[in-house]
DUF4395 domain-containing protein (Sulfurimonas paralvinellae), 239 residues
Amino acid sequence: MNEFFAYGEKVPSYDIRVLNEREARAAAAILFVGAFLGLVNGVMLGTAVFSKYFVTFFAIDFTLRVIQPRYAPSLLLGRFFVRNQTPEYVGAVQKRFAWALGMVLAWPMFYYLVIDFQPNPLKVLVCLICMALLFFEAAFSICLGCKIFGWIKRKDPKYCPGGVCEMNIKEPVQKFTPAQAAITVLTIVVMVYGIYAYFTKLPDKTMFVKKMKVLMMSDAELQRIEDAKADAEFEADDF
């Protein structure tokens, strides 16, 4: 019974309980795809049905991760896809803290998107932050919650993703030459400007921008637009 409630797996040669980072990354990728599909459905089709189901799954999944990750659905799906890969073990305690942060974000989103559906810019921003965190973990094995855990504890936790807690010296292949650094910075600047230009230089010229503007509006703003349309139609009928 004690082993049932024990958090993480006991692996020989590791002095603390650990989890499989490959499994966690695969699960993050699966959830990112789900969140992206929900965003696309909301923006392009104007429906939040998929998002409501996904947010419900997301909240339950992260709650199970915090209680006992052995039974979290997304982690089990991730395990299926990486079952033939050599495990990469990371400390369970920092992953639990990171997933607890995800759970804290998930349940308010569940209430405001499923129970009391009231989309607004803040809620959309929270969804985008969740997507960014999932993407960073899936693509780069960067666990921001784990880093926050380290700052709170004021010392690096053991067995971080990619071995960043134990690595003190970078290999030559991990370092940037001045030319590589300049190209990287320029790439980031161009990407940021491209995103800015897309949303500001092309106002209302794409369906995506139009949908995003509507999605960002409050109920009061949407009601004012509807009232203005009704008034315009009423005046047109008078003529």
